[in-house]
What we know:
five-stranded antiparallel sheet
Amino acid sequence: MTSNYALRLCEDALPADARQALPPLNRVIYARRGGVVVASAARDSRVMEDQAWHGAAACEVAADHASATLWRWELIGGAVAADGAHVGTTRVVLEHAIDLDPSAEYLMRADRVDFAPGGVALPHRHRGGGIRCLVSGTLDVTVGAAPARRITPGGAWFESGREPVLAVASKDDATSFIRVAILPREIRGRTSIMYVNPSDAERGRPRTYTVYVDEPIALPRT
Length: 222
């Protein structure tokens, strides 16, 4: 395994009719507010609010006639500058090393997890690492032996997949987050979760999942 890769989450605030050019990278763009058009050599794709786009080629992102806020996850190999050519404000929310085997095959998955009030994800692991970012509600997250951390909307955290994680949602409000993970390609279309206690697989509900992206990728050069 190697740590010469990183997963990065940026937030882009695009004014109305603004355009930004992005270099080739495996990325997911999630429209947090407003809509955009993502233009690449392959095609132009309209991404509406609460939708996501995935690609690896250079692309240009154009806001509609209203402003847009985007969450942008990118898989980096080696040293890559944080930004392409941007118009508006870009903020690096979180960047974290991720252990990947250059000889293995991977996919990039983006999904949304929705908890009903009082929902719980009992101690579990995943088949790969990823960055989560909270959309609404609050979530108390305990990763491994670290103290519990309360996540509020816009807050992000990394899970390697190796440490057990306990997540407890707000008792009063619906809670949801978006996550992007790099996972073994053989689990495409299947869950990545592994419970510390297998009997917990049928407990700790209710929560629902919306999958936006589940696509094979080629690792970047390091």
